[in-house]
Write a sequence for this structure.
C-alpha cells in the first residue's frame, strides 16, 4: 500500500535535504581536507548564517539581502575564528582541535540564545517562490523546488571555484599535501584562512536558504552537524564529490524512512554508515591514508 | 613515587571523600550538587581511561550512560526488580555489552573519524530511546519512581534516602571505581593503553594487538558510564531522557578537559567546577541561561591556555615547586658528561634473551629467513622486482643500495608492514606472507625504524617495558588488576635491554629529554626487548654525528653477538665493518651478493654508486 504521490514527494524532499547536506558537508570536508581540522562548530555556522540572514531580512525585507548577509556573516566568523584561534591549533593534537571547536560551537549557540532567545525565527520565502507548483505528476511547494535549484547552483559554483580556478587548484593541492604547497612558495596560511572562510560561508549560506523550510533556533545546527558527519563518513573525508554523493544518500535515507516512521530515520542513517565502514572503511569516494 | 607509596593516592581519596560533606557546604556547594559531582566523576573515570590514557576522544558516551541508567531504572520501576545494587550492575553489564558492539564499529577508524562516528551513534541511541523504545523508557517523560537503595545488615536496615546517606552510597561506589581504575592504569594493560595513545603504530609493531586493547578501553569506559547512569536515576529518583543527549556527552568531555585528562581525578574536579559555577551563575548572579555561554568561554580559554586542565596544571606546579627543575638540570649536566665520555663496549654484556615458551620453537633448518620472488608494485611503479633472499641463522647481513633501490620497501615487506604484490616470505620455516606486523613480531621478527618511533610521553624504562610486555604476555591479555612490575621476568628483561643499549643511567628520564643519539639507541632497544630471533635495523646510523656512528657500530657489533640481524645503511664503511655478507639492491632487484671484500671489488657495484657511466 504505497501512496505513490506521497512517495515521489518524499523522494523530492530527500533530494532537497540531500543537496543541502551536500553543500554543508562540502564546507566541512574541504576545511578538514586542507587544514586537518574537523570543525565541530560547523553546525553553529549554519545556525549563525540563519540568524544573520533573519536579522537582515527583518530590517530590509529583502530575501536576497538576507542570503548575502547570511553567507557573508558565516564567512566573517569563519575567517575570524581561523585567524584568532584555530591557527594556533594546527601544531596541536587533533583532540585539542576537536575540543576547541566544540567549545566555540557552544559559545556561538549560547550567544545566539542570549541575543535572540530560544524561540524559533522564520523567514518567509521570497514572493516569487511562494505557494505551490503543479508539476503534473505531483504538487510541490514552490520554494522547495527553488531551494533545490539554489543549492545546486551553489554546489556548481563551489565546484567551479575548486576545479576551474587557480585558487581552487591550490586548495585541492592543499588537500592532497599542504606542506608541499607551502614548499612551493605559496603562503599556505593564507590559503587556510581562505578555505576556512569558504567552508564557513557554505554553511552560513545553507543556514539562510533553508530558513523558509525549517525555522531558525539556536539548536538547529546540532542535528545538522550530526547528519553532516554521517555524510562525510559515507562519502569519504576530504572528498568534495564524496560529500555530494554522501549528502544525496543521507537525504534520501532520512526522507524515505520518515515516510514509514520518522523515529527510525537516524537508525537507518546509522545502518548505512556502518555498512560503508565495514565494506569501504575510507568512504565511498575517499582515499586511504587521508586521516 | 607510586612505587614507594603504593596506596597513598587511594588513602588520600578516601580521606577527601570522608571530609567532603563536612567541608564543601561551607564553600557554597549544595548537598545535591555534591552528589551529582560524584556521579559525573564516576562517569568520567571511564571516559578518562578512554581519552586521557588511550587517546580516543569519544563524543558519544551518553549512549552508555543512558543505556545503563535506563536498564537499571526499567528493572526497578517497571519490572518490579527489588534490589537496587544488582539492578545497577545489570545496567552496567548492558552498557558494557552495548559498548562492545559500538566499539567494533567505531574503532574501525581512529582520530576525527572515531569522534564523528561516536557522535552519530550516540544520536541514534537518543532517537531510539524517544521513539521505538518509548514503551520501555517512557520516551520524553523518562522513568520516574526509581527507588533508593537499602542495606540489610540483619539486625537493622539502612535506608539511603537522605542527601547525606545517598552521599555515603555514592562515595562508596566512587571509591570502588577509582581504586579499580588506579589498578587498571598501573596494570600491563594500562601501560599498553598509554603506548597506544603515544604511538599506535609502534605499539602494534612491538607485538600488541592494539585493536583488542582499544576495544577493552572502550568497554571499560562504557561500563563506568553505565554504572554512573544507574546512579543518576537513583540520585534523582527519576531517570531523565536527557541522559542520552549530545549535551551529556559534551558536558562530560568539557568537564574532563577542564579538570585535566589522564589524571583519573580530572573529571571529578571538572564536574565540581562546572556544577559549582553553573549554580553560582544561575542562583547568585541570576544570569539565567547565560551561564552556559560563560562556561563555554571559560572552556575555550582553558583549552587554549591550560591544556592539561586544573589537575594537570597543579601537578606541573607541584613538580616545579618540589625542585624537579633542579633535578632536570642535574640530569642535563650528567648527560653532557656522559656524551663526552666514550662508551666502553668491552663492558657491554653479552645477553641472550630467552623467548617465552609461548613462541613456537625455532626452526632447525639453517635458513632463518627465505624470500622468493618478492615483488611490490605501486600502480605502475615497481619498487621491488622478484627478489630472492636468504639469511642464515646467526648471520649479520648488510643491505646497501643507492637511494630508490627499494631497500625500505623490501624491509617493510619482510616485517609485513606492506604486503607483497607477488612472492612469498618464510620465517623459521613458516610462511608468513600476508601476516600482520603484530603477529610477525610475536613470532620473533621485528625491526628498528629509520625514523624514531618511540612512546614520546613515557620514560625510557616505560618504553622498553612496553616492548618487553608484548613478548612476555603475548598480543593480548586482560590482566587488568595485576601490577606491571609483577610480570615474571619483566624487570630482568628491561634492565638487560637498557644495559645492552647503554641507557641504564637514563632509565627514568622522559624520552623527550634524551639526546638524539640516545633516542636512536632506545629505538634499537625497543626492537631488542621483544627478544627477536631476527632483528632488522633500518638505517640505524641515520642522522648521527661521526662519533655517534663509531659508537653505534660498536654497539651493533656487541648486540650482534649471538643474534641474527639484517642492517640497512648508507654508511658503507659501517656496513663493511659490521656485515659478514652484503646484499646490494639496485632498482628494486638484487644486483649482487657477497662478502665485504667481494662487494668492494665488484665493478657493477661501483658503477651503481658512481652513476650509470656505461649505461646507454
Amino acid at each position: 500500500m504505497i501512496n505513490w504521490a506521497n512517495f515521489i514527494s518524499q523522494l523530492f524532499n530527500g533530494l532537497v535535504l540531500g543537496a543541502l547536506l551536500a553543500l554543508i558537508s562540502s564546507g566541512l570536508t574541504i576545511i578538514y581536507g586542507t587544514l586537518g581540522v574537523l570543525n565541530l562548530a560547523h553546525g553553529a555556522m549554519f545556525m549563525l548564517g540563519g540568524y544573520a540572514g533573519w536579522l537582515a531580512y527583518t530590517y530590509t525585507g529583502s530575501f536576497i539581502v538576507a542570503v548575502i548577509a547570511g553567507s557573508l556573516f558565516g564567512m566573517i566568523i569563519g575567517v575570524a575564528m581561523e585567524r584568532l584561534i584555530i591557527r594556533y591549533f594546527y601544531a596541536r593534537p587533533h583532540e585539542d582541535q576537536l575540543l576547541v571547536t566544540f567549545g566555540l560551537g557552544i559559545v556561538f549557540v549560547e550567544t545566539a540564545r542570549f541575543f535572540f532567545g530560544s524561540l524559533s525565527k522564520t523567514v518567509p520565502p521570497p514572493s516569487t517562490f511562494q505557494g505551490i507548483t503543479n508539476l503534473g505528476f505531483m504538487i510541490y511547494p514552490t520554494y522547495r523546488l527553488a531551494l533545490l535549484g539554489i543549492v545546486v547552483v551553489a554546489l556548481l559554483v563551489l565546484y567551479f571555484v575548486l576545479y576551474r580556478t587557480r585558487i581552487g587548484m591550490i586548495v585541492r593541492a592543499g588537500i592532497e599535501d599542504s606542506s608541499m604547497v607551502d614548499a612551493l612558495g605559496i603562503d599556505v596560511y593564507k590559503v587556510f584562512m581562505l578555505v576556512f572562510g569558504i567552508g564557513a560561508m557554505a554553511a552560513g549560506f545553507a543556514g539562510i536558504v533553508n530558513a523558509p523550510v525549517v525555522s531558525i533556533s539556536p539548536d538547529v545546527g546540532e542535528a545538522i552537524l550530526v547528519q553532516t558527519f554521517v555524510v562525510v563518513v559515507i562519502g569519504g573525508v576530504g572528498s568534495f564529490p564524496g560529500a555530494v554523493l554522501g549528502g544525496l544518500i543521507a537525504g534520501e535515507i532520512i526522507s524515505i524512512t520518515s515516510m514509514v516512521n520518522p523515529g527510525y530515520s537516524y537508525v537507518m542513517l546509522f545502518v548505512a554508515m556502518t555498512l560503508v565502514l565495514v565494506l569501504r572503511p575510507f568512504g565511498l569516494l575517499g582515499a586511504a591514508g587521508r586521516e | 613515587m607510586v612505587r614507594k607509596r603504593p596506596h597513598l593516592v587511594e588513602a588520600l581519596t578516601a580521606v577527601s571523600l570522608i571530609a567532603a560533606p563536612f567541608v564543601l557546604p561551607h564553600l557554597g556547594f549544595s548537598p545535591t550538587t555534591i552528589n551529582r559531582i560524584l556521579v559525573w566523576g564516576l562517569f568520567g573515570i571511564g571516559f578518562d581511561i578512554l581519552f586521557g590514557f588511550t587517546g580516543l576522544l569519544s563524543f558519544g558516551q551518553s549512549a552508555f550512560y543512558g543505556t545503563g541508567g535506563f536498564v537499571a531504572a526499567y528493572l526497578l520501576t517497571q519490572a518490579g526488580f527489588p534490589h537496587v545494587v544488582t539492578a545497577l550492575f545489570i545496567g552496567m553489564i548492558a552498557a558494557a555489552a552495548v559498548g562492545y558492539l559500538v566499539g567494533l564499529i567505531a574503532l574501525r577508524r581512529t582520530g576525527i573519524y572515531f569522534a564523528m562516528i561516536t557522535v552519530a551513534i550516540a544520536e541514534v541511541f537518543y532517537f531510539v530511546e524517544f521513539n521505538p523504545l518509548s514503551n520501555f523508557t517512557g520516551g520524553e517523560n523518562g522513568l520516574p519512581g526509581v527507588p533508593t537503595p537499602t542495606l540489610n545488615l540483619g539486625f537493622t536496615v539502612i535506608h539511603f534516602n537522605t542527601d547525606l546517606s545517598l552521599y555515603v552510597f555514592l562515595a562508596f561506589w566512587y571509591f570502588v571505581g577509582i581504586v579499580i581504575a588506579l589498578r587498571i592504569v598501573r596494570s600491563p594493560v594500562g601501560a599498553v593503553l598509554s603506548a597506544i595513545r603515544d604511538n599506535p603504530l609502534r605499539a602494534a609493531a612491538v607485538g600488541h594487538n592494539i585493536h583488542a586493547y582499544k576495544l577493552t578501553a572502550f568497554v571499560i569506559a562504557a561500563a563506568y558510564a553505565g554504572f554512573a547512569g544507574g546512579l543518576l536515576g537513583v540520585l534523582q529518583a527519576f531517570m531523565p531522557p536527557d541522559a542520552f543527549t549530545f549535551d551529556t556527552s559534551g558536558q562530560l568531555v568539557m568537564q574532563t578537559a577542564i579538570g585535566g585528562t589522564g589524571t583519573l581525578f580530572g573529571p571529578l574536579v571538572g564536574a565540581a567546577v562546572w556544577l559549582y559555577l553553573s549554580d553560582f551563575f544561575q542562583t547568585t548572579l541570576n544570569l539565567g541561561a547565560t551561564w552556559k555561554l560563560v562556561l563555554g568561554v571559560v572552556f575555550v580559554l582553558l583549552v587554549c591556555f591550560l591544556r592539561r586542565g586544573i589537575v594537570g596544571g597543579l601537578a606541573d606546579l607541584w613538580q616545579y615547586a618540589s625542585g624537579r627543575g633542579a633535578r632536570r638540570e642535574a640530569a642535563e649536566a650528567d648527560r653532557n658528561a656522559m656524551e663526552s665520555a666514550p662508551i666502553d663496549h668491552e663492558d657491554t654484556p653479552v645477553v641472550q634473551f630467552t623467548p617465552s615458551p609461548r613462541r613456537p620453537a625455532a626452526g632447525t633448518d639453517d635458513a632463518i629467513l627465505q624470500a622468493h620472488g618478492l615483488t611490490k608494485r605501486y600502480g605502475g611503479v615497481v619498487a621491488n622486482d622478484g627478489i630472492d633472499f636468504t639469511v642464515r641463522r646467526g648471520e649479520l647481513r648488510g643491505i646497501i643500495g643507492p637511494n630508490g633501490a627499494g631497500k625500505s620497501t623490501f624491509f617493510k615487506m619482510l616485517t609485513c608492514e606492506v604486503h607483497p604484490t607477488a612472492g612469498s616470505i618464510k620465517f623459521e620455516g613458516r610462511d608468513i606472507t600476508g601476516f600482520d606486523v603484530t603477529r610477525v613480531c610475536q613470532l620473533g621478527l621485528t625491526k628498528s625504524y629509520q625514523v624514531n618511533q618511540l612512546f614520546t610521553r613515557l620514560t625510557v624504562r616505560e618504553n622498553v617495558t612496553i616492548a618487553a610486555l608484548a613478548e612476555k604476555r603475548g598480543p593480548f591479555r586482560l590482566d587488568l588488576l595485576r601490577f606491571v612490575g609483577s610480570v615474571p621476568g619483566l624487570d630482568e628483561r628491561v634492565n638487560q635491554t637498557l644495559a645492552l643499549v647503554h641507557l641504564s643511567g637514563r632509565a627514568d628520564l622522559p624520552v623527550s629529554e634524551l639526546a638524539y643519539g640516545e633516542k636512536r639507541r632506545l629505538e634499537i632497544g625497543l626492537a631488542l626487548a621483544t627478544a627477536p630471533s631476527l632483528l632488522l635495523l633500518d638505517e640505524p646510523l641515520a642522522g648521527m654525528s661521526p662519533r655517534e656512528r663509531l659508537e653505534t657500530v660498536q654497539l651493533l657489533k656487541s648486540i650482534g653477538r649471538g643474534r641474527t640481524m639484517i642492517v640497512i645503511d648508507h654508511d658503507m664503511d659501517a656496513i663493511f665493518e659490521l656485515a659478514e655478507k652484503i646484499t646490494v639492491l639496485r632498482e628494486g632487484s638484487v644486483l649482487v651478493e657477497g662478502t665485504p671484500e667481494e662487494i668492494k671489488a665488484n665493478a657493477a657495484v661501483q658503477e651503481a654508486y658512481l652513476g650509470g657511466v656505461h649505461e646507454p
Notes: The interface with chain A takes residues 51, 55, 57, 59, 105, 108-113, 115-117, 119-121, 123-124, 126-128, 130-132, 246, 250, 253-254, 257, 289-290, 292-293, 296-297, 299-300, 303-304, 307 of chain B (CB under 8 Å). Residues 160 and 166 of chain B are 5 Å apart (CA to CA). Chain B has a mean pLDDT of 86.
